Amino acid sequence: MGIKTAVPVWLLLSLLLCRLLVAGPSLLTQQECKELEDDEEPPPITYSGRELGRFRIYFAGKEIGHEEFEISDSDQHLKASSRTQLTISREDPAEPPEYLDEEDYEELPRPDRPPAEPVTFRIHSTLRFNDLFEPKAYEVVQEAGPNRMRAKVDFQPDRSRVSYFSDEETDRRRIELKEDVTILDDNVFHHYLILSKRYDLCRGGIQEFSAFVPQQFLTGGITVSEVGKEEVEIADQPFWLRRFRVDTGEMIVNYWLDSDLRLKKLAIPDSEVEVVRE
Questions:
Q1: What percentage of the chain's residues is helix, strand, coil (to nearest 5)?
Q2: Cα(20)–Cα(24) distance, rounded to whole angstroms?
Q3: 123: helix, coil or strand?
Q4: Which of 39, 101, 145, 194 has the fewest CB atoms below 10 angstroms from its CB?
């Protein structure tokens, strides 16, 4: 069963320029995997450390926004938070672009009318999880002008609770989720960074994960596989990166890691979306 995820539509307001610090996932490098004895098991994959970063987001080659994220750890859990901002300019077409849901997009005026002002979408997310990638709580707030929506997930062993809040109503639901379900919410790209830490480089091949999209209340299986190394140009600079492929059943997402296993780029070909690490 696949899941369908939307492509960027809101993004976070940046308060300061973030830079990469130190991330401490226990993934082995390709060389370390080769050095394992035939009967030696690699250590379990866990997550620790602290990481800050900023992504530039492009649609059809045009920069439309950015995402700033931070992943930090404490004695009890890890916290991944982000602030994202996306602006749709007046030059955009009258029909909603592919990456926007029609109900979330205010149609631009016809050519014989004055152009509309740019529309800005913002999204703020907070995910709490443990070092085994088991989510404990998630909250996302999205804003577009006066419209505001908030979703909150409390992960429980039996049936997790999902609550949606808007200016007009509150909707509460229950859903059965696997203990280590991966959160891949709409327009929150650092979630793919967390997913990349879960891929077992020593085992390789096609690996399956359970995923949940809170804003769409969708759950299903996804697969991740390594495609190989290739040269990728970022900001007019060539990089030799490892490419991975995520198949949600509805769309393909490619992401690239550098030699230190940092997420450098993400692309969704069908939607003409690219996300690049600064």
A1: 10, 50, 45
A2: 12
A3: strand
A4: 39
